[in-house]
Amino acid sequence: MNEKQTEQKVTLATKDLHAWFDDFHAVKGISVEYPEKTINAVIGPSGCGKSTYLRCLNRIHEEVPGAKASGEVSLLGQNIYAPHVDPVELRRNIGMVFQKPNPFPNMTIFENVVIGLKLQGYSKKSYLLEVAEHCLKKAALWEEVKDKLNRPGTSLSGGQQQRLCIARALAVNPPVLLMDEPTSALDPIASAKIEELMTELKKEFTVIVVTHNMQQAARIADYTSFLVLGELIEHGLSSQIFTNPKEQKTEDYVTGRFG
Amino acid sequence: MSYLQYRKLKNILFLGSLYMSALIALLPLFLILQYLILKGATSLNLDFFLHDPSPVGEAGGGMRHAIVGTLYMVGIGSLISVPIGLLCGIYLAEFGRGKTAKILRFTIDMLTGIPSIIIGIFAYILIVAPLQSFSALAGGFALSIIILPIVTRSTEEILKLVPTHIREAGLALGLPRWRVIFQIIVKGNFKSLITGIMLAVSRAAGETAPLLFTAFGNMYLNFQISEPMASLPVQIYTYAISPFDQWQEQAWAAAFVLITIVLGINLVSRALVNNKMIIGQSKRVINHTRLIRKKKGN
Fold first, then answer.
1. What are the strands of the beta sheet with A176-180, ordered from one edge?
2. In this predicted model, what pLDDT tens digit does every residue of B177-206 receive, in sequence order?
3. Distance (Å, whole) CA B35 – CA A56
4. Does the structure's ipTM exceed the value 0.95?
5. A99 contact B CB<8A
6. A90 in contact with chain B, both atoms CB, cutoff 8 A
7. Which CATH number fits domain B64-273: 2.130.10.10, 3.90.550.10, 3.40.50.300, 1.10.3720.10?
């Protein structure tokens, strides 16, 4: 398996990444590499900084008042924390899906999907429609919404809304898709659909998913990182993390002895 | 009396007092409306809207000049305060964490509490005294101070209801902050914001005290911003305390017209949001039941 790892291109890598909320040191020096076209899970007990860590990867963490981050995150070889990088510009190239489905309430299903493209200056309706269909198909939502693209995005069910948010994130064709507990607000059936979708998305995108559901990580992730109190305890192939962890803490957590 | 009977009696007494208070709270509005319709609507005719006052003792005449004056000065007040109020509200809701915001919020709250006659005096000192003339401008300015805090606070309250994750969704898509604010948050709550503005405007339309010694009053139709101008509330005041029966009747009619304008704006703006609110609420209820079901399932 190690051979495979070296063969694969690295899409995203963090190097000594730290994050703070005012004086609280939430993420303490995490260095991980995410190979192309893989699903990478980040697990850990509540409050371990896994969401904060994820939010550093598209620099949305720093939008919270009092929050700051330092270190290096390289996206396709470019350090996104370099001084000349505009975070707004950067976020257009990284997709993000949140815990709660959050389609824009004042926009239709169609508008929700293409808002990212519109921002980049695409305005031709036929092209936008084409992309919307493509993305909704990729998000496994097309069949359910093709006749009601002009209905508000919030008229859909929770699971559908989450898939709409995935379609919205995919529209700009980002190399990386960040997902912050994407299924925790959904029922088991909707969750299963999202998981299935993620394994499909893996064929084209690098997915990094924060989850508090260890079974989910074990089911879908190629690699898993385990965080406790802002520190990376262990990172490796999911099969190894869940069956033969090197660290005692990891073993305790995945076997349910703590966390 | 058994314990059960005693409990039932207490229940009835308490419920009864609730209904009574509700009824008493309803009474004033209905009594006012009843009086105004009985007294005001009967003295109302087409001339009232089409003519200016006629000299004392002559029949006929109307209050075209006061209706126009009220709309004119409320217009000036809104032009000044609605943009400022909206922007202040947006600032407070989106960035309002620091010391500046705290001071602004406190100032705005204080402003709401200032008696309107004081606002009139302030406008008098600031505009009437230097220009040495009562004017529509001074009246409009005084009304703008009434409008400003209401628009600011209603805007802030409305925008604060927008959950953070909607803002984050915008930011994560690479929208700059100002686009998130204007294209998603403000645009998505446009109707509610308009309602806040209309409520502030209708409040200003009914104010008398700020206009008494700013716009002063005028017996003729006036469109000059630098001239004294009539308004419905001041005209009602002048006519109601006059000894002439005909003027008193016209004061009733003016009162009826004024309350129709104010309540009309209120009702229209409420209707505007209500459509939306009902949808929003039912959704929230559904989400709640879903959550509860989920929790029980776990």
1. A94-97, A176-180, A206-210, A39-43, A223-228, A231-237
2. 998 999 889 988 888 899 899 989 999 999
3. 65
4. no
5. yes
6. yes
7. 1.10.3720.10
